């Protein structure tokens, strides 16, 4: 019987496994830059409207023309300015990054793609374009996955090892990602703080969960200042680190968007978060692919029966 997405309200339960992070670390932290600018819906790309998600634009120009020049500029700020500010903060501290890369977006900024390659950041495919995969037919989604992989192989120099949808996945996404092959993991899940295995059509699939909670998307909602974001992210980090030291180590994903936290008044919050984490002991700040590789080596697939 073909794989079906099933809900699981139990997971690891009261006794999650010890991840055995390298060097005895009590928390693994992964920072992700979502590189989306240039792949979003736009008049230019024939979509009939301008995407304004995670920007300060409210779509006022769309009422008549469908085109929002304010939102377009805000997206362009992300790739023109925000990317360089964020990567500089990490480079100055010698810290790694993961890029959730929309393939078309990276095609449109070869300089940024070259910088990603040179820095050794890992790239997790964020799709071919910023589209709603759950609205695609199975054939369309299969094509988008193939296009994304082929494109990233050209811009980054190798195939992506992870997959993460923009918007939520469809019920077919994980199966189609595995059908395409070549992916070490997917991150299309928000319900856990440790990686875990699934069995999909008799084959193992590693899930490295992501977080929209520990995310600069809060700046597009109720949060206004860098102090608020710093406090919010550090509270999560401090609790997870304390739990890890008490015998329950976890991982923490922190999601960033160039057109949001790339602005100076917001980037200050990220700067403070990085410095706070660097002052602590027992912390492994790492790439997403390294978490996946560690899990494969330390907690190998236990065999059929999972999610079947």
TrEMBL record:
Highest taxon of the lineage: Bacteria
Domain called NodB homology: residue spans: 69-286
Reported function: Is involved in generating a small heat-stable compound (Nod), an acylated oligomer of N-acetylglucosamine, that stimulates mitosis in various plant protoplasts.
Family: Belongs to the polysaccharide deacetylase family.
Protein name as annotated: Chitooligosaccharide deacetylase
């Amino acid at each position: 019987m073909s794989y079906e997405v099933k809900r699981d309200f139990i997971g690891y339960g009261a006794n999650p496994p010890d991840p055995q992070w390298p060097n005895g670390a009590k928390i693994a932290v992964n920072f992700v830059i979502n590189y989306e600018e240039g792949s979003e819906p736009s008049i230019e790309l024939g979509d009939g409207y301008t995407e304004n998600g995670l920007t300060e634009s409210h779509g006022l120009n769309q009422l008549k023309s469908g085109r929002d020049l304010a939102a377009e500029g805000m997206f362009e700020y992300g790739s023109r300015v925000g990317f360089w500010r964020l990567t500089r903060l990490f480079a100055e501290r010698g810290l790694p990054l993961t890029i959730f890369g929309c393939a078309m977006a990276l095609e449109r900024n070869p300089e940024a793609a070259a910088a990603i390659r040179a820095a050794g950041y890992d790239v997790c495919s964020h799709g071919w374009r910023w589209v709603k995969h759950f609205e695609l037919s199975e054939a369309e989604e299969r094509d988008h996955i193939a296009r994304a992989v082929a494109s990233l192989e050209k811009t980054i120099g190798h195939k992506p090892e992870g997959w993460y949808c923009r918007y939520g996945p469809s019920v077919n996404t994980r199966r189609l990602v595995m059908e395409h092959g070549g992916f070490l993991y997917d991150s299309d899940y928000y319900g856990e703080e440790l990686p875990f295995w699934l069995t999909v059509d008799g084959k193992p699939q590693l899930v490295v969960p992501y977080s929209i909670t520990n995310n600069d998307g809060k700046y597009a909602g109720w949060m206004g200042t860098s102090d608020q974001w710093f406090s919010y992210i550090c509270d999560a980090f401090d609790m997870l680190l304390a739990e890890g030291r008490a015998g329950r180590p976890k991982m923490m994903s922190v999601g960033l968007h160039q057109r949001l936290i790339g602005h100076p008044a917001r980037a200050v919050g990220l700067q403070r978060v990085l410095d706070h984490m660097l002052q602590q002991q027992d912390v492994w700040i790492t790439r997403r692919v390294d978490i996946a590789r560690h899990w494969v080596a330390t907690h190998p697939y236990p065999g059929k029966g999972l999610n079947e």
